[in-house]
Design goal:
This is GatB/YqeY domain-containing protein. The protein is mainly α and about 150 residues long. It has two domains: about 80 residues, Hypothetical Protein Yqey, Chain: A, domain1 (Orthogonal Bundle), CATH 1.10.1510.10; about 50 residues, Orthogonal Bundle (Arc Repressor Mutant, subunit A), CATH 1.10.10. It is built from seven helices and no strands. Helix 5 crosses helix 7. The N and C termini lie far apart (about 45 Å).
């Protein structure tokens, strides 16, 4: 079942169960997907859908950090709930060990030897782990391996 079908099905369930927050998040994601579809003028591929989901998740994580700094506990809890709902639609995340293996393999592929090759490695690795790993974690692991 593709993402849009899952969202529609979960939206109906959320309506039946009167889960307002879940319904709101699903509607926002569907809206973002539809806007992206209009922008491209074609149906979205699975990769495009994943990009939109990643963007939505990243926006919320960034906002969460800001609200935590500002001690806005009311908004922090709301965002944590939204993040957990969004993570439900993301592919299974890679463990740090799996990610480290991919990082080492990619470093060998591109022939990187120092931090100056960081951009080359990141450019090669991100398409491999798209949606399956946090970019910050990937960046940190690559830096560790190159130093």
């Amino acid at each position: 079942m593709n993402l849009l079908d899952r969202l529609n099905q979960d939206m109906k369930e959320a309506m039946k169960n009167k889960e307002k927050e879940k319904l709101s998040v699903i509607r926002m994601v569907k809206s973002s997907l539809q806007n992206e579809q209009i922008k491209f003028g074609r149906d979205l591929t699975e990769d495009d859908q994943l990009t939109v989901l990643n963007r939505e998740l990243k926006q919320r994580k960034d906002s969460l950090q800001e609200f935590e700094k500002a001690n806005r506990e009311d908004l922090v809890e709301k965002l944590r709930n939204e993040i957990s709902i969004l993570e439900h639609y993301m592919p299974e995340q890679l463990s740090e060990d799996e990610l480290l293996a991919i990082v080492n393999e990619t470093i060998a592929e591109v022939g990187a030897s120092s931090k100056a090759d960081m951009g080359k490695v990141m450019g090669a690795i991100m398409p491999k782990v798209k949606g399956k790993a946090d970019g910050g974690l990937v960046n940190r692991l690559v830096q560790q391996q190159l130093s």
